[in-house]
Amino acid sequence: MNKSIIQVTAGRGPEECSRVVARVVEMMMKDARGKALDITLLESTKGHLKGTLLSAVLLIQTGGISSNKTLEAFIQEWRGTIQWVAQSPFRKYHKRKNWFVGVEVFDVNKQQEWNLKDVKLESCRASGPGGQHVNKVETAVRGTHLPSGMQVLAMDSRSQLENKQLCLKRLEAKFMAWQMEQLLAKQQDQWQEHNELERGRAVKVITDKL
After folding, report:
1. What SS3 state is found at 136?
2. Alpha-carbon distance 88 to 76, whole Å?
3. Rounded distance, CA 153 to CA 135, Å?
């Protein structure tokens, strides 16, 4: 099963662009579901006005009768700069009618660079409320991802082996979330820096009323 993360951003655009982000997300989700692709809104950052989004992150993957080719075609259609042609719903007499948002896609499988060799595990004594020791042996496990410095402590079980497994699972999840946040932040910064240039290369032009 192929999975991809999609980011839709208004960059430094005005409120109209944030409104376009919300509309584009709605259209993408409807389009994906019509093609039997599984799509989920993972997170979104609301704009200052009702019905607007500064950015949104979606997870899309093959599912049902869809194929990898269907997913690839969907990404090809939406990836890049989207030009939305409409009169501003916020500024009635504003002359500008072209609004731009950026759509970037990340292959989840290519981003997963988790390596157990980068993890340092240490046993430690689990403590309860008020400093009372849950037990006298070191059953808790602290995991450190050395390249990033992230740490996770697992002390759910009295079994050190179970805590080790929990620690590794949670540390990996934390690492993946952190890595994706870094990628999305970097991409948004890049699109903001180059949005003037990208406006001339829109992959899709949508004419509609906001």
Report:
1. coil
2. 28
3. 16
Pair 38, 120 in one domain: no
**pLDDT score, position 180:** 72
- The CB-side HSE value for 6 (13 A sphere, CA atoms) comes to 29
Place of tokens 């504003």: 94
Domain that holds residue 200: 3-112+194-207
Q: From the CB of residue 105, how many other CB atoms can be counted at a distance below 10 Å?
A: 18
List the beta strands (DSSP E) in 63-169.
80-85, 98-107, 119-124, 140-145, 150-154
Determine if the pTM surpasses 0.70.
no
pLDDT of residue 30: 96
Total domains in the chain come to: 2
Mean pLDDT for each consecutive 10-residue tract of the chain (210 residues)?
A: 84 91 96 93 90 91 84 93 92 89 80 79 72 61 90 89 92 80 67 54 82
Q: Is residue 186 situated within a structural domain?
A: no
Cβ neighbours of residue 161 closer than 8 Å, sequence gap 6 or more: none
Mark whether 143 and 82 lie in a shared domain. Answer: no
Do both 43 and 107 map to the same domain?
yes
